[in-house]
Amino acid sequence: MLEGFWIRNFKSLKQVGIGTAFPQFVYVEDPASVLPFDLGTTTLLTGLSGSGKSSVLDAFEFVSDCYCHGIDYACGKRGGYETIYSHGGKGTMSFGFHYRQPGEPIAATYAISIGYIKNKAPYIDSELIAYRNGKESVPIAFLQNGQKTIRYLAPDERISSTELTSIEFTDLKHLGLAALDSHPKYPVWFSLRNLFENWSTDDFHIDTTYGLDETQFKPHDNPRGYKLSQFIRYLVDQFGDETESIINRITAGIPNLLSVLLDITNREHPLLSLVMDSLSIPIPASHLSEATIRLLSYVLRLEEPSPAPLITFDNPENGLDRIHCWYMADLLRKFDVSTHGSQLMLTTQNAELADATHPQNVWIFSRDQSGFTVVERASDLITPPENPNEPKNLEPDWFSTMFKNRI
């Protein structure tokens, strides 16, 4: 379970934190700005266009790219370090994640700091792994490049630098976490690595022909792919001949869809057809609308038998009619980590999707006078300070009634 994260000096996210903070080890100017609330199964980010919602999802994918392929690839994919560094920011670009295995009392903090030498190249400045059991946070490993040292913004006399397992980088382009061996004493290390390797960043793409025969991956593609064709190929690789029955079980209930037909005679190029309730013959995927392809892709990712630890959707309502948006909202209401084994984070400007999410899990984005992102939790805005408990008598259209003007 990802309980919280913070991002500093990435695009418009000069300093944004959502969820559990890191009391001893934070690379932020104002630790109080990290809103202290454990993330739940679903986290919904909403706000006006350009407020920074999609940048949060890209920050997650950026760290994943750093982990899997190195910092040069991650920066180059986005136009270079200077392009993504917050204009007017100070210090390094940094990211932090607070993570806990379900049912475990010990949580882990992982923080990464990325520096840049002008006219040269970005480099990994430092990484920190710390464990928190109860109220105590203890650093386990600190990896540095010899130029910087750890910064304790909240001093704690019980913790000294001598307690750190200090490792000096020999490779400033790849994360040390990827090279560390799993340690039986610290099982969360393996879970963190699984998170970075396998989270599903679904920035939906559709090609001009909607073809499902374009299944070849680029060298650095997301393992599940962005297109439905790539995801179908991933499922075929995972489940073989059982894929068709799995897809039909997953997609049962999609409006106007009766069944899915999958031909995997050639597994390199599986063929997909859909049987709709208005026609008696199967429709090839190449003849389907973008909305149908989009909804099918989302449902498959949400209900995948071996789901990603974290699933992200960027504005999933785009191209969907009201009936399909209602269907998506119903999926959000039913989504539960104990059933699915994963967490969901999505951006949206659709009030109905926000209505389907509890106010404690809805975060409203806006820009301050300097143009940087500011985040507020919806439940904090509708609950009086003297009564911090969750809102009572929550109406089904609570967001539409109170905050529709914010999107």
Q: How does this model look, in words?
A:
- The protein is of the alpha/beta class.
- The protein folds into 2 domains: 2-199 and 358-406, no CATH class; 202-353, 3-Layer(aba) Sandwich (Rossmann fold), CATH 3.40.50.
- It is 26% helix and 26% strand.
- The chain has helices spanning 53-69, 71-76, 81-84, 188-198, 228-239, 243-251, 290-302, 322-334, 337-340, 351-355, 378-382, 398-403; strands at 2-10, 13-19, 42-47, 93-100, 106-116, 122-133, 136-144, 165-168, 200-202, 257-263, 271-276, 283-284, 310-314, 343-348, 362-367, 373-377.
- The strands form 3 sheets. The protein has a 7-stranded mixed β-sheet with strand order 2-1-4-5-6-7-8. Strands 9-13-14-3-15-16 form a 6-stranded mixed β-sheet, sandwiched between helices.
- Helix 1 (53-69) packs across helix 4.
- It is globular and about 65 Å long.
- The chain starts with a strand and ends with a helix.
Task: Throw out a few tags for this protein.
alpha/beta, single chain, 2 domains, 16 strands, seven-stranded mixed beta sheet, six-stranded mixed beta sheet, 12 helices, Rossmann fold, 407 residues
